[in-house]
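2 proteins. here.
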Amino acid sequence: MGVYDNQGVIVQLFHVYKCYGTYNALTDITFDVADNEFLFISGPSGAGKTTLLKLLYMGETASQGNIIIDGLNLSRISRSRIPFLRRKFGIIFQDYKLIPTKTAYENIALVVEAVGTRHNLIKKKVNSLLRTVGMDEKSGALPKSLSGGEQQRIAVARAIAGNPKIIIADEPTGSLDAESADKIMSLLKQYHSRGATVIIATHDTGQIRKTGGRVIILKQGQLEVSTIIPKLD
């Protein structure tokens, strides 16, 4: 299933399978993602959404088929090149995965430092990210003192800290109230507007309708349909 003809392609999957023993988590998945596309991957629990996302950044490896990320064929890259691949991604998890003993500032600073930011610029960069997600007043807070929505905003800031080409979000609003969910989606749309490709796995059809765009629907590990959902006015 191809993307729009006038856009470049940044993600390509060709007949991808993922098997765990005799269980097929994903079966014969083929689709493209356009550069700067805002794509939803939807389907019920157990459909294979999380597994599919993990294959893109090599959190898991495909059992069969080919995945090409920004020109890199994942079946051909060495283990030593995986960190290089992952620099292309910003990853947002449903359960945040913040380091509980680090403050909001420190959780973001670890990524800012890891991508090679000059030491004298780290503070400025982190504070800018905190302002972007509206969390500058909570920079010194530990994750346990923050609400779910606040933790997810820190997770978004951490994900975009390395200026990734692709943002992957796995059920980023799944455990949030409606107001917090809207704030997270707004932040993702904001980063998308700067040129990033955004891929969101979600079962939240309400958020899909609010945003609009292409939706790939999985069912029992198979690609059931790829469709365009118009944005609600």
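next one coming up
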Amino acid sequence: MKLFISLIFAISFAPLALCQNIDMYLGTFTDGDSKGIYKLQFDTIQGTLSNLKLIAKAESPSFLAFSPDRKFLYATCRDSNGIISAYKIKDNDSLELINSVDSHGASPCHVAINDRGNKLAVSNYTGGTMALFDINSDGSLTEALQVFKQSTDIEPSHAHSAHFINNDLFVADLGRNSVFQYEKSDVSDGYKLKTESIVSMQTGAGPRHFTFTKDHKFFYIINELNSSVTVAKNTKDGFKLIEHQSTLDDEFKGESYCADIHLSPNEQYLYGSNRGENSIVVFKRQLHNGRLKKIQTISVEGDWPRNFSIDPTGNFLLVGNRRTNNISVFSINKRNGKLKFLNSFNAPSPVCLLF
């Protein structure tokens, strides 16, 4: 009798289990067919995308980020001056522009928000600056609280990404070939420089993006110019360099430039994208010391994979291929971390995928 009831229960709720469409937001470059920010549906059972819809017109909203409560969305927009825009997420599949402010640098390419949702940092690639903003309770942005100019007379800065971690702010600077660390100021609401380089980078590496373990013990920095990952350990005495690892297949001989990097939800695997080789590299992590072992290099089934994302279930990895206007979907084998190509979905100039 218990078995019969269990079967009836399972059958009755099967349709609910299969109905697993979730939202995915898409940032784009608008130098082609794209018009701005799009929204799609992703089926977390089948691994398929559908229902591409323009939800906000904007000029090259190339990077997107949610507020912690997911009520607001922030986008870098590459207009003639460089702006950062704040949107309210509406229930009717649209975004309502709250305000836009000067990013205080050209070509803003990354935005980060702290855990409290009251501070925002934008990285300006061409301008070489990182700007800090307050976020008001209605989601709007104030004018810049601080603007950090990291260039020197010898080395121009190309700030590429940032993350708030506890009371510190870290910034990957491709031009200065370093990851800066700022700490909360004792005398103001802003930040002050702690170190210009958390670890020594290889010459010409070009830090672009970075990720870190949940305990903030290990940092993984993906380097655009020499196609490598730098591993650093956060200790009580500061950061310690662990190793540098190539992201390219040993047989690849052409030009390639890294873009994005993500840890698997269980932190056992690390993924990185290569533009040129047009691949995703998969590393197995040694949990005790953070070291990496390359276990797979797989084609992205497209050209120029600028950004990729792992869906909330941890079962799929999606790659935006800018030059071929498609998003490739891969399944993730959770037993060994390896990827398998499933399907491709057409989308205009996809450069940021946000769940």
